[in-house]
Specification:
The complex is a heterodimer of chains A (112) and B (118). With 112 residues, chain A is mostly beta strands. Chain A has strands at residues 3-5, 10-14, 19-21, 24-26, 32-38, 44-50, 56-58, 64-68, 73-78, 87-94, 100-102, 106-111. In chain B, a hairpin with a 6-residue loop joins strand 4 and strand 5. Classes of the chains: A mainly beta (112), B mainly beta (118).
């Protein structure tokens, strides 16, 4: 079985500052990893995914994440955030068969 | 291209009443998912359909929850009777292709239905 831990429930940051949202996973099999963003009263939108290949994955809206197998981590980063990045971010893992297991989410709060 | 459509967006009912949610997936997507998202939590899978077949319903509380996807397109999730603890957001998602251990097809999510049980 797979599980995901997002240790930070909320991350406050100033506009144009860099940000890192942490994600650690647990799995006994090879995994696929994902980051989703959820804006208020909306569904989830895929930011980026790691399926195989390069461990540095670039996604939409200037986000990127790095898969670290030895540390079982998949942290999300952005070098300069905007007010519009304020949202809930979910890390998710899949061991295949289309089954996604989500973390509890991290609320990113960007202030001017 | 239209995304995943869900209705209603919001529903308020009293406990012990029945409620139903509807989902229309992206055209051509044969796999459909229903997720439950409690406040402050990530989504949890309730049921997954491949065409009209429920291939994973292990997390669906079958005493009060039911789902159907009769023609392999749109789907309905029902709760009868609703309890206070069912207050949550119910998300529908869809993807193309079939699930296997060596591939992944992106899931596209609808906006969800926010249920409040009083």
């Amino acid at each position: 079985a797979q599980s995901v831990t997002q240790l930070d429930s909320q991350v406050p940051v100033f506009e144009e500052a860099p940000v890192e949202l942490r994600c650690n996973y647990s799995s006994s099999v090879s995994v696929y990893l994902f980051w989703y963003v959820q804006y208020p009263n909306q569904g989830l939108q895929l930011l980026l995914k790691y399926l195989s290949g390069s461990t540095l994955v670039k996604g939409i809206n200037g986000f990127e994440a790095e898969f670290n197998k030895s540390q079982t981590s998949f942290h999300l980063r952005k070098p300069s955030v905007h007010i519009s990045d304020t949202a809930e971010y979910f890390c998710a893992v899949s061991g295949g068969f289309q089954k996604l297991v989500f973390g509890t989410g991290t609320r990113l709060l960007v202030s001017p | 291209e239209a995304g995943v459509v869900q209705s209603p967006r919001y529903k308020i009912i009293e406990k012990k009443q029945p409620v139903a949610f509807w989902c229309n997936p992206i055209s051509g997507h044969n796999t459909l998912y229903w997720y439950l998202q409690n406040l402050g939590q990530g989504p949890e899978l309730l049921i997954r359909y491949e065409n009209e077949e429920a291939v994973d319903d292990s997390q669906l509380p079958k005493d009060r929850f039911s789902a159907e996807r009769l023609k392999g397109v749109d789907s309905t999730l029902k709760i009868q009777p609703a309890e206070l603890g069912d207050s949550a957001v119910y998300l529908c998602a869809s993807s193309s292709g079939r699930g296997n251990s060596s591939s992944y097809n992106e899931q596209f999510f609808g906006p969800g239905t926010r249920l409040t049980v009083l």
